[in-house]
Write a structure and sequence with these properties.
By secondary structure, this protein is α/β, with parallel strands linked by helices. Helices cover 19% and strands 35% of the residues. The chain has two domains: 117 residues, no CATH class; 287 residues, no CATH class. The strands form five sheets. The protein has a 19-stranded parallel sheet that branches. Strands 1, 2, 3, 4 and 30 form a five-stranded antiparallel sheet that branches. The chain is elongated and about 130 Å long.
Length: 457
């Protein structure tokens, strides 16, 4: 009887399912608690990152509003008020005033980057190892970035009239009904005058009177030559001049001859510095190849006369043409075309941002120590200019009569710097891309306009 009772109780126990849920929940509770803990940990990362972002936003705006020499000190002080101090608790705060502005591509914005670490907890269970090990504890790296534009916004210029001669207006039009600067900005260190046509400029900056030029006219103090120091240094670092004191020209009006050694035609392979003494005359089309990446054509006391032909850089090649020498003796230090048809084409690309050339971004350069033989009477027309890079003629009067386009094998970037500009006919330049000049290796000159400090990233 007792044996029967035990068997019956065992059968009853086998069929009894009471408590199964509790057992299942007990088994599931371990991973459930783990996932909940992991969720709380990830939420904590988000909260810390959000706090970092608030601190970065406030610090960046403070730096942009400061817009002075101690902008970085102010930015870090503001970040400290939000609980993030540079160098404390493994926090790093980076501050810059050369950040790229998303809207313009110019490196004139302010940025603050905050990075820090927080220890890993439950996330280690699922195999996450983080990004650092500090004092034996695995860490998750967190960070935030903010970018702000200052109240004074820098505007890149494609046309800069230095007016060191005192010419006023240094930007002047006289019968240019079809002139078109394609929305670029200009600056005159004296006045600007556009008679009946705004030249298709966007903003016309000028230190003096500024009627009618551009969609907007803005007063700006004179701008210091932004390239002279670098160019003067580059010229002083050139090897000794092999041409002697005064190489002699032989031109007679628009008809002249040069020695066979000064006649250019066909294809050339150049590397580094190439010196040329006196006038250089094309007798056929010329193509320049630069197998090492770039070359510098240094013309001592002479012009580059295209003579109705094309002078160009090959694809993948880059060239800077430097005119230097003496201001005496009626030398001409410029590209010219002395044929009656004026059909010559100058088609060159300057060394770009990836080049090791000290002339990066510079296509045509006149020695700033030269004071005569510099003027160009029909730029863009005689000869045609298809150029990528800087055209630097600080003491020249440039009469722009044709449209300057980019070089066939270069980026879309043209910047002209001269003493003064006279625009006539269809004088103009192409629209420079936001990234065209940075890609071409050229930092454009800038002027400033009032704006609003605001976050842009």
């Amino acid at each position: 009887m007792a044996l029967f009772s035990v068997a019956r109780n065992l059968r009853r126990l086998r069929k009894d399912e009471r408590g199964a849920v509790s057992i299942t929940m007990g088994i599931m509770m371990v991973p459930l608690v783990g996932f909940l803990a992991l969720g709380f940990e990830v939420s904590n990362w988000y909260m810390i990152t959000r706090s970092m972002q608030n601190a970065a936003d406030a610090a960046t705006l403070a730096a942009a509003i400061n817009n002075g020499a101690n902008y970085d000190v102010e930015a870090r002080a503001v970040a400290t008020q939000y609980g993030f101090t540079n160098g404390v608790n493994n926090v790093t705060i980076g501050v810059s005033n050369t950040a790229t502005c998303p809207s313009t591509g110019n490196k004139t914005c302010y940025s603050v980057t905050i990075t820090g670490y927080t220890p890993l907890l439950m996330s280690q269970i699922v195999g996450f190892q983080g990004a650092g090990n500090i004092n034996g504890q695995l860490q998750k790296q967190l960070g935030a970035l903010a970018v702000a534009q200052p109240a004074q916004q820098s505007q890149p210029l494609c046309l800069l009239a230095l007016a060191s001669s005192g010419t006023n207006p240094a930007l002047n039009t006289n019968g240019a009904p079809t002139g078109n600067m394609n929305g670029c900005d200009s600056m005159s260190n004296t006045g600007a005058s556009c008679s009946g046509h705004n030249l298709g400029l966007d903003i016309s900056f000028a230190a003096g009177s500024n009627p009618n030029c551009g969609n907007k006219q803005v007063h700006n103090d004179p701008i210091t030559d932004p390239y002279r120091s670098q160019i003067s240094t580059n010229i002083s670092n050139l090897p000794a001049n092999p041409c002697g004191s005064y190489p002699q020209e032989t031109h007679q009006g628009n008809h002249y001859t040069v020695a066979p050694s000064n006649q250019l035609s066909g294809s050339y392979s150049w590397s580094g510095n190439q010196f040329f003494c006196g006038d250089q005359l094309l007798t056929a089309d010329v193509t320049i190849n630069t197998p090492t990446g770039y070359a510098v054509m240094i013309i001592e006391n002479g012009q580059l006369d295209l003579n109705g032909f094309t002078f160009k850089t090959a694809s993948g090649s880059a060239l800077t043409i430097v005119f230097t020498g003496s201001s005496c003796c009626s030398y001409i230090h410029a590209p010219t075309d002395n044929t009656n048809g004026n059909t010559g084409v100058l088609d060159i690309a300057a060394p770009d941002k990836n080049s090791t050339s000290p002339w990066k971004g510079m296509a045509i350069v006149q020695d700033p120590n030269l004071t005569s033989g510099l003027d160009v009477s029909a730029a863009g027309n005689s000869p045609t200019w298809d150029i990528t890079g800087l055209i630097y003629m600080p003491h020249a009067s440039i009469t722009l009569k044709g449209a300057i386009d980019k070089s066939t094998n270069g980026n879309q970037c043209v910047v002209l710097v001269a003493d003064n500009f006279q625009i006539s006919g269809n004088g103009g330049i192409l629209k420079t891309d936001i990234g065209g000049c940075p890609a071409a290796g050229l930092t454009m000159p800038t002027a400033t306009i009032p704006g609003t400090t605001k976050l842009v990233l």
